[in-house]
Every structure is written in C-alpha cells, then in structure tokens.
Design brief:
heterodimer; A: alpha+beta; hypothetical protein PF0899 fold; three-stranded mixed beta sheet; three-stranded antiparallel beta sheet; 2 helices; B: alpha/beta; 8 helices; 38% helix; globular
C-alpha cells in the first residue's frame, strides 16, 4: 500500500504550492500515472479521501490521467506500445525491451481559490 | 478577486525521495561504502543469507546492516548476534524503506570507509521497487519454495535487479520449483541480471555470491 504514502505526497505538494499562491481551498487535483508506474489507481483514489480530510483540499476531486507505456527494443531499436509489461518486441520477437514512457508519477495541475 | 484558478505544477511525486537517494549515493561513494538494497517477498531468506554472509566475511570486510520491518526488532537481534552493528527501522504501516530512513540510519551507524552497508528492505515484491535508496546495487532474493514464475509475476521488482540470489537451493529435490524455468523467466524480464543459486544453510553457491560482493566492493573503492 504505497498508494497511501503517495497520496500524502500529492497532498503535501499541492498544499505547499496552494499556500504560495494564497489559495484557501483546493477543489481539483490532476495527476499523471503511467500504466507501468506500479501504482493502483483505485487504491490511490481510496486513500485520497482519507488524506485530504482536515486539510484545505478536503473534498477535492482527484483526476487520474493514465499515461500509456511505450517501449524500445534493446536489440533492434523498434518502438512500440506493449500490451503487457513484458511483451517481446513485435518487430524482432526478442525480449529485453526498455520502457521509454509509462513510469510517470506526477502532479500535473490543481484548481483552487 | 477570487474564483477558481488552475495552477500547473508538473511536480514529480518521487522527486523528494530521488533527491535524498542521490545524496545517499554521493555519500556512499565519497566514503567508499558499498550499499546494497536487499529485497524479496517475506520469508525468502534475506536474513538467513545475511547471517551466513556476515559470519563468513565480516572478519575480512567491515559490515553494517540496516534492517527494515513493519514491526519488531527480531531481525536486528539476529544480526547483532553475528557481531555486526545494526539499526532496525520499523516502518509501521509503510510497506517499504525510503531514502530518508536510510540516511538517518547511516548517521547512527557512522560506518568506516570501505564498509559494506547491507540494507534489508521490508519483505515485499511490490512497493520497494519504486523507491531508490541510493544503493550501488539492488539484490533480489528469491527462494525455491516460491513459484518459478515470480519474475514475470512481479516484473517491476525483477527488472530493476542487478543480481538475483536464488535461495534455499538445498530444497530443490523436494519442491516442484524448476530452476531453469526461473532463469528463463528472469531473462525475459531482465537479460542483464546475473542469477546465483545458493543455500545459506548448506553453503552451495556462496563463493559466487562472495565473489560478486568482492567485485562490487572493489568498484566502490575506486569510484570515490
């Protein structure tokens, strides 16, 4: 359940910036989560309501934008969107691919007033 | 004034941990310390491997251990019985160690230059994969009492491994574990990681593990 720690990081980052922006409340938070980031969106959502309780982001909507994975074959350099984390290269059929996208885990923006 | 405004921040969630991990890595390099992050599922044999390793090598190389568990200091007491300085971190509800916890533990241990810093992470094949501690290498311990498909079931962890120690190999005659299939699965996830088969109880494979440690320690010594 690292989603709890991550939810706390999200709220921490957002509230710090909201204070700097002289906002009193935060109403919506948008995060980008790669499909290979090892984060469960449902668990993140589940933790969210708990960690924003008693903060200026109480009741804020959490929007999770999925970032699809993209892999590059280490043998032939072909880039593709793998259906599974371990999918072999569709061009040369070899395993050993590296992810060039899909591990994202960041707060994109938030709304407040 | 007033009304709802949108603020774009584009802030990486792991940035804070990554910055502390980078500072740890720099500190380890400066003092020629070899820091290893040992990860596995619960009960794979990390602590038994450590006990045996410390008894065999701590006379030749200074070692310290950082133990991560949700509760109890049972593992720290086992390590202390080997005569090696140890700090126990209890993560409470948390499922992984973070870089700051390692930084704090290192301050308490104050290891001499050339020391091997063994960090035994919380037994968990999921969460610790995401958190860099500043280690020089990540060692995944997998045991033959688990399934030989563990690498493909938990690819995030196995793809970040520098070394896989396959433990409890003395039990291979009694369990349906196929070591060849395990290595093939491992290769699919991570073609670069070496696999060493060991039995910490009987001693099989330990020379290869100690050889790997010696090589890594030599690299840590010249890097600084």
């Amino acid at each position: 359940m690292h989603e709890l720690a991550l939810s706390q990081s999200i709220v921490g980052l957002v509230l710090e910036r909201a204070r700097a922006e002289r906002m009193r409340t935060v109403t919506r938070v948008v995060v980008a989560v790669g499909t290979a980031a090892g984060v469960d969106a449902e668990a993140l959502r589940f933790c969210w309501d708990v960690v924003v309780e008693e903060t200026a982001a109480r009741g804020a909507e959490l929007v999770i934008e999925e970032v699809p994975r993209r892999a590059r074959c280490r043998s032939c350099g072909h880039e593709f969107e793998p259906a599974a984390v371990l999918a072999p290269c569709p061009a040369c059929a070899r395993s050993g691919v590296e992810l060039v996208r899909g591990r994202e885990l960041r707060v994109t923006s938030f709304d407040g007033e | 004034m007033g009304g709802v405004r949108t603020v774009n921040i584009e802030a990486d969630l792991l940035a804070k941990n990554d910055i502390i991990a980078a500072a740890n890595r720099e500190w380890f390099a400066r003092w020629e310390l070899l820091a290893l992050n040992l990860v596995s599922s619960p009960g794979a044999g990390k602590t038994t491997l450590l006990e045996r390793t410390l008894r065999d090598v701590a006379g030749a190389w200074p070692c310290v251990v950082i133990e991560g568990d949700q509760q109890t200091d049972n593992d720290a007491r086992r390590i202390a019985a080997c005569g090696v300085p140890v700090v126990q971190i209890n993560t409470g509800t948390m499922c992984h160690l973070e870089a700051q916890m390692v930084a704090d533990a290192c301050r308490r241990l104050d290891p001499a230059p050339g020391t091997v810093v063994m960090i035994e992470n919380v037994g968990n094949l999921v969460c610790p994969a995401m958190f860099d501690l500043g280690e020089a290498a990540r060692v995944v311990v997998a045991s033959v009492t688990e399934g030989d498909d563990k690498p493909v079931k938990y690819p995030y962890m196995f793809e970040t491994a520098d070394l896989v120690v396959l433990s409890k190999c003395d039990l291979l005659p009694y369990v349906p574990f196929d070591a060849e299939r395990f290595e093939a699965n491992m290769h699919d996830v991570n073609p670069d990681a070496q696999v060493i088969r060991v039995s910490a109880i009987r001693g099989d494979g330990l020379p290869a593990w100690y050889g790997w440690l010696a090589d890594r320690r030599a690299v840590a010594a010249v890097r600084a």
